[in-house]
What does this fold into?
Amino acid sequence: MPSKTIVRKPAVQMQMEATFTQKRQPIQSIQSVKRAKSVKWLKKPDKAITGKAITGRGYQIYNASSEEMVHIPDNNVSLVLTDPPYFIDGMDNRWDNRKLQRRVKKGVVGGIPAGQKFDPAQGVNLQKFLQVVAKECFRVLKPGGFMLCFSQARLVHRTASALEYVGFEIRDMIAWQYEGQPKAFSQDHFVRKMNIPEKEKRELINQLGGRKTPQLKPRMELIVLAQKPKQGTFIENWLHYRTGLIDVQNPLIEPDGFPATIIPCKKPKEKHGHMTVKPIDLCRHLIRIFSVTNDTVLDPFMGTGTTALAALTEKRKCIGYEIDSDMIEIITKRIKSI
It folds into this structure.
C-alpha cells in the first residue's frame, strides 16, 4: 500500500485558522474592572493630572492604553474617530516613536520602502489587537454611534473584520485622497549585482523592460465607516441618543456638494514628530458629518492630538488615549495653541 503524502500547511495559515475558525469567544473580558459611572468634565481649562492625563475645558487625554477605557461609562460617546497602528514596519502595539523615527529616512525602513515589508502575520496580529480596542469602543459608543477607523489599504479587510467581529455594522468605506510618492522598486540594480557576465546583465535588464515591484503610486488611505446598531427606528434612536443620522448640509471639504466617499485633502506639512499624522481639516470634515455640536468624540489612539484639535474646533468634547508620554507633551502644546 503506497504511503500517504502529508502536506504541511504554512505556519501563518495554521495560525490564521486557529484564530478565526474557532468558536467565537468573548474577547479579553474586563467585566471585573471598575469603570467610571459618568465622565466629569472640568470647568476650568488646562488643569493637569501629572503622569496620568491632561484635562481641560472639553477634553480629557489619558496617558494610558485604550484596551481598558475605565474612565468612560457604557453608551457615553457619540463618535469614535481614530488612526490605529497599521502593524507594518514596527508600527504595532509595541509602537516606539523614537525608534521608528531613527529607522525611517526618506521613506525607507531598513532598506525597504516604508509600508512595503510584506508578512501575512501582520494582518492576523492587527485584527487580534484591534478586536480588543474595538470591543471597548463598541461598549462606550451610544447606540447608532459611528466609528471611523483609518486603515492601510492592504490591511483594511482586517480592520473591518475586527470591528464587525465585536458587533459593529460595516456601513461604508471612505477614501482620503492625497498625492503620494511612488514606492515601487526597479530591479535593474539587483541585476547589476548578479554574478553573471555583463552581456547577460544587459540582456536581462532589457528583458525586464523597466518593470518594478507591485506597488502603484499611493493616492488614497481608506477609512472604515462602522456603526453600532441603533435602537428602534432612525427617528427613535435619534430622539433618545442624537446619533445614527449624518449631517450633509455643511461639509468642510467641497462645501458646495453632497459629502462623498472620496475626500480630497492635502497631507499636512507639519508632522509634529509623528510618522502618520492626519490633516486637521479632514478630521473636522468627518466630525461635522458624523456628530453633533457638544457631542463627545473618542480617539483611542490619539497620536499627536489631531482628533482633539478638530473636535474642539468644531465645538465638540474629546476623550483620548495615548500610551506614548512624548506624544502627550505634543498634544498639550497643540491644544494650548488653539
In short: The first helix runs from residue 11 to 20. The chain has two domains: 39-179+220-336, 184-217. The two ends are 80 Å apart (CA to CA).
